[in-house]
């Protein structure tokens, strides 16, 4: 009798695993779709309100210092200012989304200025290793062209805004949304996939480049988990983009640099450490650097443990009280009933 039931049991198990995979895939895809809608539609419309006057102001103030090409590059990065502002306002307005703001402020123990500085140092070091590898491989040659303190500060600030916007959407929203419904592993992979797909239309993108960006997303998610800090990957992301695009004048995810302190001399060639269209990203060297950092951080995390703040802790109880029209004092008088009503339901897609 046992053997006759075995095929049915195995078939049911396979069906269950398949259903679970489809369920997870639907959750990740829905998060990606929602993220894209928020970025492209809501952020795009609101962004015009912010970016038009910002672009006019930058042309008036920065053109004498940066030149027309430099200001154009500055304004490309400045497009993210409207995206960031509109999304933060949306998180504040939509009550069920307010817990996401907890991951961005100072409530997480790792969201401190020194972690942002550490991130800047780490991001510079990672990119410098890749650029040095490209130089030693003979794929690119650089020479110093100019330096401006105004250009340095202007681009550092605007790239911080650009990089932080991507981190808010990918690690502050997509990662937290997926983790709430599933688990940390699914959240890391899902948010990293969304981060990678977000670059699929960039000039010069390749399959290897998408793999590299995916690994970057995994690394940044680890930083949130082990250091309880989204400010750390914000710093790393900022320094990476600034170093390759503004300091060294190399393409940043396919975006050419019209203003930089160093410039490319002669002809460039694609190879192990450099891609002529995409830059040092999307190369085997960048993949190795990211993989090494992921492994090192994973081993560090196994020893020191996770520190990530649960942004949803307490939010379910508050939501249940608001929906029931009860006060905090009334809920305190009957904590068991309030907590029972506040139990999270896994498939709350609105979150």
Strand tally, please? 2
The secondary-structure element order is HHHEHHHHEHHHH
Structural class determined from secondary elements: mainly alpha
* Strand fraction: under 5%
The parts where pLDDT drops under 50 for at least 5 residues are 11-15, 319-324, 326-350
Which value, in Å, is the CA radius of gyration?
A: 23 Å
With helices defined by DSSP (H or I, 4 residues minimum), what is the helix count? 11
* Form type: globular
Return the average pLDDT rounded to an integer: 85
Assign a percent range to the helix content.
over 70%
For the biggest β-sheet, the strand order reads 1-2
> How far from one another are the termini?
47 Å
Largest sheet: 2 strands, antiparallel
Element layout with pairings:
Elements: H1 2-93, H2 99-104, H3 113-136, E1 142-144, H4 149-181, H5 184-197, H6 207-227, H7 231-247, E2 262-264, H8 284-304, H9 315-324, H10 328-333, H11 335-341
Antiparallel strand pairs: 1-2
What does this structure look like?
With 351 residues, the chain is mostly helical. 72% of the residues lie in helices and 2% in strands. The protein has a two-stranded antiparallel ribbon with strand order 1-2. α1 (2-93) crosses α4, α4 (149-181) packs across α7 and α5 (184-197) packs across α6. The chain is globular and about 55 Å long. Residues 11-15, 319-324 and 326-350 have low confidence and may be disordered.
């Amino acid at each position: 009798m046992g053997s006759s039931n075995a095929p049915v049991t195995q078939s049911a198990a396979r069906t269950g695993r398949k259903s679970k995979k489809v369920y997870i895939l639907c959750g990740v895809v829905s998060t990606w779709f929602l993220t894209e809608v928020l970025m492209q539609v809501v952020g795009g419309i609101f962004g015009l309100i912010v970016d038009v006057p910002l672009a006019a102001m930058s042309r008036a103030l920065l053109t004498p210092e940066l030149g027309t090409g430099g200001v154009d590059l500055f304004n490309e990065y400045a497009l993210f200012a409207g995206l960031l502002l509109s999304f933060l306002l949306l998180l504040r307005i939509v009550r069920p989304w307010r817990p996401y703001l907890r991951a961005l402020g100072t409530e997480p123990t790792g969201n401190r200025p020194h972690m942002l500085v550490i991130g800047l140092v780490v991001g510079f070091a990672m990119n410098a290793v890749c650029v040095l590898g490209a130089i030693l491989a003979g794929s690119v040659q650089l020479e110093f062209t100019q330096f401006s303190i105004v250009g340095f500060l202007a681009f550092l600030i605007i790239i911080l805004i650009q990089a932080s916007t991507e981190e808010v959407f990918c690690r502050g929203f997509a990662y937290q949304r997926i983790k709430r419904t599933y688990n940390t592993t699914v959240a890391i992979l899902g948010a990293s996939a969304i981060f990678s797909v977000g670059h699929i239309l960039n000039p010069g993108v390749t399959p290897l480049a998408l793999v590299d960006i995916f690994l970057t997303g995994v690394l940044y998610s680890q930083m949130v988990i082990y250091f309880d800090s989204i400010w750390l990957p914000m710093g790393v992301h900022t320094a990476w983009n600034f170093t390759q695009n503004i300091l060294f004048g190399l393409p940043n995810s396919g975006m050419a640099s019209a203003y930089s302190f160093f410039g490319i001399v002669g002809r460039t060639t694609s190879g192990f450490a450099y891609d002529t269209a995409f830059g040092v990203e999307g190369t085997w060297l960048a993949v190795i650097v990211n993989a090494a950092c992921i492994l090192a951080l994973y081993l560090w995390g196994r020893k020191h443990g996770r520190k990530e703040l649960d942004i949803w802790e307490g939010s379910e109880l508050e939501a249940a009280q608001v929906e029931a029209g009860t006060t905090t004092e009334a809920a305190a008088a009957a904590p068991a009933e309030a907590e029972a009503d506040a139990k999270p339901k896994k498939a709350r897609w609105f979150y």
